[in-house]
Design brief:
Elements (H helix, E strand, L loop, with lengths): L19 E5 L4 H12 L3 E6 L2 H10 L5 E5 L5 H15 L4 E4 L14 H30 L8 E5 L12 H23 L5 E7 L6 H6 L13 H12 L9 E4 L7
Parallel strand pairs: 1-2, 1-4, 2-3, 4-5, 5-6, 6-7
Helix pairs in contact: 1-7, 3-4, 4-5
Length: 260
């Protein structure tokens, strides 16, 4: 339930109604759940992904809401620049950025494939950094023109940014980098006098198929109920709905019975 603080501004997700949310990784999993959650809350959502059929299906499911999609290859710097520019041109700007895209697969340090390392870092670190940098530039421009809630950047990180599972060093390294970028961006924004907020949400084991793709034949379902993608989307909604005085910085969301 929302309430009205002393300055008259509403709190809760409805404060973002009619504003623009860019969600990367919207084709599947957590990114898709976030796009659905925000569109149904009245935001104007732009979903990026690589799977055209999945994006078309999502658009059909959100036919009664303000949802647009774009196929974007996040390993291509110029493609990201062009997609951000197109989103700003078509929607007037970006108020919320949710970096939901991420990849992970078996890429050991000993005997590992450098191209696999590069792909993990390209998507999980460099693409996230560029999407964030470009969106924040637009948010800062709009911050001087708009008295509503300032922009908000949310990184979908991982519990692997807080501990290193055996054999997953490069994936964990990418998520530790997200922690560093979250703190670094927060410091930069405060130094600039900006009210834009930045949050990392670090889920534990989520039932999205990510772990199966990551581990392949080695995947064994855990003996406890995993998170659902919608649980992480609810965390995104909660973070966005916080009053201006509150900054959720790194929110850890584990299955209740997950031991690590």
């Amino acid at each position: 339930m929302s309430r009205t603080p002393a300055d008259g501004r509403s709190e809760g997700l409805e404060r973002w109604r009619g504003r623009v949310a860019l969600v990367t990784g919207a084709s599947a999993g957590i990114g898709r759940a976030v796009a659905v959650r925000l569109a149904r809350a009245g935001l104007r959502v732009v979903g990026w992904g690589r799977q055209i059929e999945a994006l078309e299906a999502l658009a059909a499911a959100l036919a009664d809401h303000d949802f647009a999609w774009r196929r974007v290859e996040l390993r291509d710097v110029e493609a990201i620049r062009a997609a951000v520019a197109a989103t700003v041109a078509s929607h007037g700007g970006v108020d919320v950025l949710v970096n939901g895209a991420g990849i992970g697969f078996d890429a050991p340090m000993v005997g590992g494939d450098p191209e696999a390392w590069r792909e993990i870092l390209d998507v999980n670190v460099l693409a996230l950094a560029l999407c964030t940098s470009l969106a924040v530039e637009d948010m800062r421009r709009r911050e001087t023109e708009d008295t509503r809630a300032p922009g908000h950047v949310i990184h979908i990180s991982s519990m692997s940014g807080h501990r290193v599972p055996r054999g997953n060093a490069m994936y964990a390294a990418s998520k530790y980098a997200v922690r560093a970028m979250t703190e670094g961006l927060r410091g930069e924004l405060r130094g600039l006098g900006s009210r834009i907020r930045v949050t990392a949400i670090s889920p534990g084991n989520v039932a999205t198929g990510f772990a199966q793709r990551f581990l392949g034949d080695a995947f064994v379902p855990p003996p406890y109920p995993r998170l659902e993608a919608e649980d992480v989307a609810d965390a995104v909604a909660h973070v966005l709905g916080a009053p201006d005085r509150v900054a959720y910085h790194d929110l850890l969301v584990r299955p209740a019975e997950q031991p690590t």
